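Why Extracellular solute-binding protein? Reviewers of the renewal asked for a concrete example.
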Amino acid sequence: MAKRTRSAALAVLCVGVLTAAGACGGGDDSSSGGDANTITWWHNSNNEPGKGYYEQVAKDFEADNPGVDVKVTAMAHQDMVDKLAAGFQSGDVPDVYMERGGGELADHVEAGLTRDLTEDASEEIAKIAEGSLAGWQVDGKTYAIPYSVGVDGFWYNKDYFEQAGIEKTPETMSELVDVIDQLKDVGADWAPISVGAGDKWPAAHYWYFSAVRACSKDVLDASMESMDFSDPCFLRAGETVEQVIETEPFNPGFLTTPGQEGASSASGLLATGKVAMELQGHWEPGVMQGLTDDGKGLGERTGWFPFPQVEGGGGDPAGQLGGGDAWAVAETAPDVAVDFVKYLFSDEVQQGFAENDMGLPTNPAAIDSLSDPALADLVQVRDEAAYVALFFDTLFGPSVGGAMNDAIALQFAGQASAQDVVDATQQAADQEK
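Here is what the prediction returned.
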């Protein structure tokens, strides 16, 4: 991996306050290179209310800019990630797209595919907290405007926890195992946990967060710079994941279950009462709303708790794992695409984003517009974090992150050990050096 890529990755694992948070959503498949008044825009808010909201946002921008045509493509998150990866390989990307930051962004910048927004969007950039902005900067320049940044954790059904007699959410991995046992003892037709291992990354989040809990920040910083995963804490992370897997807490067919697409996805199972909890990002309430007939998701039954501590681990208890999404502009996009991205970050659009529970906005003017109490609580968690480590597959880029995710998926399938995950990750990292 190039030094610049590692530097961009390190920027995200930072001590400090994050002022706002992130989301997930998605549609169509046109790409850049058209006329100067046409903007192609890809996002992942493919469920309501996000899909309809973004369609209206595009129409409003067109009304304010006569002659401009915004072609919107909403798609499932994994579909969007795959299509963007293919587009970056061919050099044919949409004018405006969701950029996940870290090592991925650094690669895009190095290839000359992503526009520098430092000067063109300086007013918008100035509103964003340094901790929220860092993951989308390379060599001191800003290449995307983060509109949503947040933290991972367990979303759960309060009613099911009450049925199981769970009065306190788990703070350690041993307590999490106890909670799983209590949920099983209810004898209901729902499983304790859903996981979309079919998409790999939802399962990988268990390993990422276990590493954040098992490894000190100094170890994480050093490993990110050196791409060396030999510290025993990484093996400990895999052993922690094994501890969870051995309780057999997951939904039937979890190895092929998608993360967020449809009622039978991991998020859909939680939203429709088929499981008691799920490890997911801050975008979960908005995703669940789009997967229920009444558009409310779990509603008032929604609870959240942070990933438990690993007993004896070296991680800071106040450290968190998270990430976000940012609007980037392709180098080949027309200038009006920059205006559109600035509009997407405007007070009005970010406030609507918050009101629709689509994530945690980074524009300070939108924080008070969050309507979901669970999301509002996450703002405090994010702001009080000692640091927020970016999701590892984004942090390390597609080669190392992809190898890591593949190995973790095999671990969930019982086909790889904790040591196998470390070995596969190190092998991919060595090839990148």
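The longest helix spans residues 397-412. This is the kind of structural detail the renewal will allow us to pursue systematically.
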